[in-house]
Write a structure and sequence with these properties.
heterodimer; A: mainly alpha; elongated; B: mainly alpha; 21 helices
Chain lengths: 162, 434
């Protein structure tokens, strides 16, 4: 299990590094093509926007794994250990609810609708449905990491969390 | 409509209090309202669509770039050189180190887009220095937190880009120009407080450096300062967009930190890219969820209702603007800046415009206002970072923060009631007609 989690973490991290580099290269290419080649590239704007959606949504799951989303922890931190554990578990259940409903179910529905309508992006000619697949993927990762957090709260050895 | 508003507010706060991440609080309460109003599947798909749609903007791309260049500059020795330059110039004044802290934050704000980057880059260097020199760590932490928010106004600024999108198309270049003067004014006001505080406490003066040393330190900072001219000159001159300027800033910061100063190794780059993707994603999820919430509010006509309500309270612009400011300060204390701008701009901007305020002035006002929230409890990102670096408790730094809040509020009032402060510079460059 530990190995599998590590594999997921690393693949996610690697994808994000690639995506960040891709955004940077795309926009640099846009600048070069406009100033030096005097022949502005038409696809770079759209491509970089689409990668940003991926970095934003997929990266959110990564940030969730790293517990770096902003929150208000003053009250929770002042509770006894048992209450704190209960509250943190409720939070994880809420995160799972949101990810499962909005990102997985809603995202999947959105992918199906846009694929059905055959919406095509203006300059790249990509079917928009594919861009939105990041929503259910990220939703699944959120649920996965949330379950790990719950496991860590109740079962795992606090010295060696998953 | 009332139902929607009540559900949104109550659910949001309930979730916030038990430490659900803010972006998820916004997303969940929005989703709940959608589920109450329309059928399940379309409701969920709409939330998903609004979230993804909120990120589909070329202007937002500037944010990962300024995050990345900020990280590179923090680690690549650029922040250090800016601090040394400031130290050489004003370090010998009473309260010198506190003044250096403020100026460094302003300079760092002028080359990176985020307060959080400034806090960690400047704070991790200045806080130990100030402690060594005998400054009260709580005061030092308070100064760093307040000063880092000047970077929100001094361009390039990620939050002004977010505002440009929320306001429906105010020019980013004009906003950037507008931010300079108020940003510098906040910096000067904070420095005044530091000066008085240090004099009263009788902190020891540092020795004045010989002129040759001053010259060397200033010269060493010039390649870093050149970035300001490159980015702002390019944007204001209409040569490139804010996003392209961001990409250029990354390339320049890479060249400086990896090539010229050699303080960042090539093998560290993947980790820096990953860190910047993480920071970007945190902001992006906030933007995605806030866009969805803002959309729900607008289809429920809540902005119109609220602005009618506000204009009913009084027809005196001075009172209404004060009211808006007080409300925003309360909002800023609980909500992070990005969602606050995205959700409250559509609500308050129409009111402000009815009172004759320009969208540019309003943008500067809302950002300055929320900057106070950024360094105030209970939810202030910058505050937590400085406390962590200074190894002090949140409760301890509230007292030294109070005079700094007063200074910021004073500038806020000037910006609110005198359009000149935000409009003079954009007008000078022909962005607005006066």
């Amino acid at each position: 299990m530990r190995k599998f989690i590590k594999l997921v973490d690393q693949s996610l991290g690697f994808s994000l590094i690639c995506a960040m580099s891709a955004i940077l290269l795309t926009v640099i290419w846009q600048v070069i093509s406009r100033f030096i080649l005097k022949d502005p590239a038409s696809v770079t704007e759209e491509l970089s926007r689409f990668i940003l959606i991926w970095v934003g949504i997929l990266g959110s799951a990564y940030a969730y794994r790293k517990k770096s989303h902003l929150g208000f922890n003053l009250i929770v931190d002042r509770q006894t250990k048992a209450t704190r554990r209960m509250l943190l578990t409720i939070v994880e259940v809420l995160v799972i609810t949101f990810s499962a409903l909005a990102l997985i179910v809603g995202g999947k529905e959105l992918v199906i609708i846009t694929l059905d309508l055959d919406q095509i992006s203006a300059s790249l000619g990509i079917r928009m449905g594919f861009i939105y697949t990041v929503l259910p993927i990220s939703g699944a990762l959120f649920v996965f990491y949330s379950l790990i957090n719950i496991y860590n709260l109740w079962i795992a050895d606090p010295e060696e969390p998953l | 409509m009332e139902m929607t508003a009540i559900v949104l507010v109550v659910v949001f706060f309930a979730l916030l209090l038990i430490n659900v991440p803010i972006s998820i609080c916004i997303g969940l309460s929005t989703m709940l309202v959608m589920l109450i109003n329309i059928d399940t599947l379309p409701a969920l798909a709409t939330v998903a669509q609004r979230m993804a749609g909120g990120l589909n903007s070329f202007a937002l791309l500037a944010i990962p770039f300024f995050v990345l260049s900020g990280l590179l500059m923090g680690r690549g020795g650029i922040a250090k050189r800016l601090i040394e330059c400031a130290m050489a110039l004003i370090g010998a004044l009473p309260g010198g180190l506190a003044l250096v802290n403020v100026v460094s934050c302003m300079l760092f704000g002028a080359i990176s887009g985020s307060a959080v980057a400034a806090t960690s880059a400047i704070g991790s260097f200045m806080l130990p220095e100030m402690k060594k020199a005998g400054y009260d760590p709580n005061f030092s932490a308070a100064v760093t937190a307040a000063a880092s928010t000047t970077g929100m106004l001094i361009p390039p600024s990620n939050i002004l880009i977010v505002y440009a999108i929320a306001s429906g198309g105010v020019s980013i270049a004009a906003l950037f120009m507008a931010g300079y003067l108020p940003g510098i004014m906040v910096g000067l006001a904070l420095m005044l407080v530091c000066y008085v505080y240090a004099k009263r406490k009788g902190y020891p003066l540092s020795d004045r450096l010989p002129l040759s040393v001053v010259a060397t330190k200033v010269l060493a900072a010039i390649p870093s300062l050149f970035l300001i001219f490159l980015i702002i000159g390019g944007i204001v001159g209409g040569i490139f967009t804010a996003t392209e300027a961001g990409a250029i800033a990354v390339v320049y910061a890479l060249m400086l930190s990896v090539g010229f100063y050699r303080e960042v190794k090539v093998k560290e780059l993947p980790e820096i890219l990953l860190k910047s993707a993480e920071t970007t994603a945190i902001v992006m999820l906030l933007i995605a969820a806030s866009t969805a919430m803002s959309w729900v509010l607008s289809i429920e006509n809540i902005p119109q209702a609220l602005s009618e309500f506000m204009l009913d309270i009084s027809d005196n612009p001075i009172i209404i603007l004060l009211l808006i400011n007080l409300l925003l300060i309360a909002v800023g204390a609980f909500l992070d800046m990005t969602p606050a701008v995205l959700i409250f701009t559509p609500i308050f901007l129409p009111v402000a415009e009815q009172l004759g305020m320009s969208p540019i002035q309003f943008g500067i006002m809302i950002v300055l206002n929320l900057s106070i929230g950024l360094c105030s409890p209970p939810v202030g990102a910058v505050l937590f970072i400085t406390c962590a670096i200074a190894k002090t408790k949140l409760e301890e730094i509230i007292k030294p923060l109070l005079p700094l809040y007063v200074a910021m509020f004073f500038v806020l009032m000037l910006v609110t009631y005198f359009p000149w402060f935000s409009e003079a510079i954009p007008a000078m460059f022909g962005f607005i007609e006066r």
